[in-house]
Write a structure and sequence with these properties.
alpha/beta; six-stranded parallel β-sheet; 16 helices; globular
């Protein structure tokens, strides 16, 4: 059974992606532990309140991140993972990455960011054993040029257990419903495009819309951050979900990567109108997503699909079927693990103590119940069970306490 330590970012859009990836790894049969970087976010932000100079603040923040990196190493020492998976902006230093490599623990980064906007990947990519990205072509070539031997194109996805159709209450429909809806940050291209929608029944959800006063009456909850749970309600409540990828300059960027919103909306069975992307055709068929190529095209298709609810429902249904078949996090994590096993053949080959074959029937039933409670597969070994128990909180059952006592006794006896 493969053990994977998932190092989450402290905050931001890649944080929920990290949690969905961890769930996908569990579905793929892995024993997963999440390093909760968000627990450190408050202290990290607290450094900004010291009112010190920028150079001193930068030094303090770097020192703080080194401490968090040491905490990741301590977690890895306790959990003994076969793979450490980091999400974009995970607080893991180059020193820590070198230590993991020295200890023969493979590391992987899933860089779920636009490489053109967030360029810090160049400084860190060579220190990861596997570098997975949501873009292709020139990025994969650039990674090879800086010494990354194992790069993988791995698009984003959805978690069908979370991103799904909902039966909304009348109150939820009133709060979240509208003819047009957009969920996301206020990038310049979006602010400019939505000025053409003034006067329409539209709600905007998300942060960074403060400097767009003309849109303020559309922005909900005063621009507060929206939880993933409410995001799913928003997707389900709107007639037309606008999905305009972020951009600093052109209204429709014609970029390559496909954002997580595309897959999440589709998994919810929600209708979306999305800007065309160069990587979109290999992910969705033309009759599965309604697309636009420029601002005028977006306005025309809002009018067209606004009058055709049956066509919207049919298209949304086909998109949902595509996601369930091909674009889940469990499938993506399976692709990542296959890639890792090919390049690190010995990964996950540790020997474990087998359970006795002549185990009494009542003990076997207790063990099966314990494996279910710990969300472990039936083939989990003794060491896997102990690792899961050590991460568990709350009161131990008699069986759990006995197994932990046995593990301590084994350690003492072996010494």
């Amino acid at each position: 059974m493969l053990r994977v330590l998932v190092v989450l970012p402290m905050y931001g859009g890649s944080l929920p992606v990290g949690r969905y990836a961890a769930n996908g790894l569990r579905e793929a049969g892995c024993l997963v532990e999440e390093f909760e970087s968000p627990d450190f976010h408050g202290a990290f932000n607290g450094l900004k309140n010291l009112r010190v100079g920028p150079e001193r603040l930068d030094a303090l923040q770097n020192s703080f991140l080194q401490v968090v990196s040491q905490a990741v190493l301590a977690k890895a020492e306790a959990f003994a993972p076969d793979l450490v998976l980091c999400l974009a902006q995970a607080p893991l230093s180059r020193v820590a990455l070198r230590k993991l490599r020295k200890d023969n623990i493979p590391t992987a980064m899933w860089f779920v960011e636009d490489c053109r906007l967030f360029t810090y990947w160049r400084a860190f990519a060579p220190y990861y054993d596997i570098f997975a990205v949501i873009q292709k072509d020139s990025l994969l070539s650039e990674l090879a040029d800086i010494g990354v031997e194992h790069a993988l194109y791995l698009p984003l996805a959805a978690d069908p257990a979370f991103h799904k159709p909902l039966d909304l209450t009348p109150a939820e429909k009133r709060e979240f419903g509208s003819r047009l809806s957009f969920m996301g940050a206020g990038y310049p291209n979006r602010k400019k495009a939505f000025l053409r929608l003034l006067g329409q029944d539209m709600k905007i959800w998300g942060t960074e819309w403060e400097d767009a006063p003309a849109l303020s009456h559309m922005v909900q909850r005063k621009g507060a951050r929206i939880s993933p749970e409410d995001t799913v309600r928003i997707y389900n409540a709107a007639e037309i979900n606008l999905n305009l990828h972020s951009g600093l300059h052109g209204l429709v960027t014609g970029g390559d990567f496909v954002n997580p919103r595309t897959f999440e909306l589709a998994a919810c069975g929600a209708f979306q109108l999305v800007d065309e992307r160069t990587l979109m055709p290999e992910l969705f068929a033309e009759d599965e997503l309604a697309r636009f190529t420029d601002l005028e095209d977006m306005l025309e298709k809002i009018a067209w699909y606004g009058e055709r609810p049956d066509e919207r429902a049919a298209m949304a249904g086909r998109a949902r079927a595509r996601v369930l078949a091909e674009h889940t996090y469990a499938r993506r994590m399976g692709q990542l693990l296959d890639f890792a096993r090919e390049r690190f053949p010995g990964m996950g080959s540790r020997k474990q103590q087998a359970w006795p074959e002549n185990m009494p029937e009542d003990t076997r039933r207790d063990l099966s119940a314990l494996l279910r409670d710990l969300a472990l597969p039936g083939n989990a070994g003794f060491d896997d069970v102990i690792a899961a128990l050590r991460e568990k909180s709350g009161t131990l059952s008699d069986v759990e306490a006995a197994l932990l006592f046995l593990d301590e006794w084994k350690k003492l006896y072996s010494r």
